[in-house]
Write a structure and sequence with these properties.
heterodimer, A: seven-stranded mixed beta sheet, four-stranded antiparallel beta sheet, 11 strands, 0% helix, B: 0% helix, globular
């Protein structure tokens, strides 16, 4: 069953701790994305990666870090420098080959609460 | 940078009413346009997309959208909504000069009363 998995579904952390959110895809997609979803603000891009070992900052990258060591995995670390980390985090992937208008496929999300 | 506006934040309709959700974007060059839907407790999924050709695009579940280049708009429509259309709807547009970057609107929550 192909798709994108994000774990865990709910995550609680104390303020000042770094936390890593997992995202795995078995769709053989080239590009992967991390978004943050806040009520009334839609999805805002944190980071994206088009190829292994390469990634670009999105619009709200401050306080976050990523790695892309494998094609199928794109973990996101929320660092203690992120001022307002409590949010719903969505991972997406997308096939690049073939056309420029391929859509993104989304995972189920991780809700992070920092106490 | 590209920006996307969805002016209707919350829409309440009765079943069988017609729906139109607005989406406007800022960059007027070549872009790809998408509508996604997020049903309660489910993943975001694609409703429809436009990249070229006929500006009237048909998607899943009876939805359609019209691309009007002169108005920088890509409004979503459905002639007759059902209770099962209750969801949050997001418009997305690719960035200027970068089709790999997507910009999303703030979303519209649709509640359909049975």
């Amino acid at each position: 069953d192909g798709g994108i998995t994000q774990s865990p579904k709910y995550l609680f952390r104390k303020e000042g701790q770094n936390v890593t959110l997992s995202c795995e895809q078995n769709l053989n997609h080239d590009a992967m994305y991390w978004y943050r979803q806040d009520p009334g603000q839609g999805l805002r891009l944190i980071y994206y990666s088009q190829i292994v070992n390469d990634f670009q900052k999105g619009d709200i990258a401050e306080g976050y870090s990523v790695s892309r060591e494998k094609k199928e995995s794109f973990p996101l670390t929320v660092t203690s420098a992120q001022k307002n980390p409590t949010a719903f985090y969505l991972c997406a992937s997308r096939r690049l080959a073939g056309s420029s208008y391929n859509e993104q496929f989304f995972g189920p999300g991780t809700r992070l609460t920092v106490l | 940078a590209q920006s996307v506006s969805q002016h209707n934040h919350h829409v309440i309709l009765s079943e069988a009413a017609s729906l139109e959700l607005g989406c406007n974007y800022s960059y007027g060059g070549t872009v790809n346009l998408f509508w996604y839907v997020q049903y309660p407790g489910q993943h975001l999924q694609l409703l429809l997309k436009y990249f070229s050709g006929d500006p009237l695009v048909k998607g899943i579940k009876g939805f359609e959208a019209e691309f009007i280049k002169s108005k920088f708009s890509f409004n979503l429509r459905k002639p007759s909504v059902q209770w099962s259309d209750t969801a949050e709807y997001f418009c997305a547009v690719t960035g200027e000069y970068n089709f790999n970057k997507f910009y999303f609107g703030s979303g519209t929550k649709l509640n359909v009363k049975p």
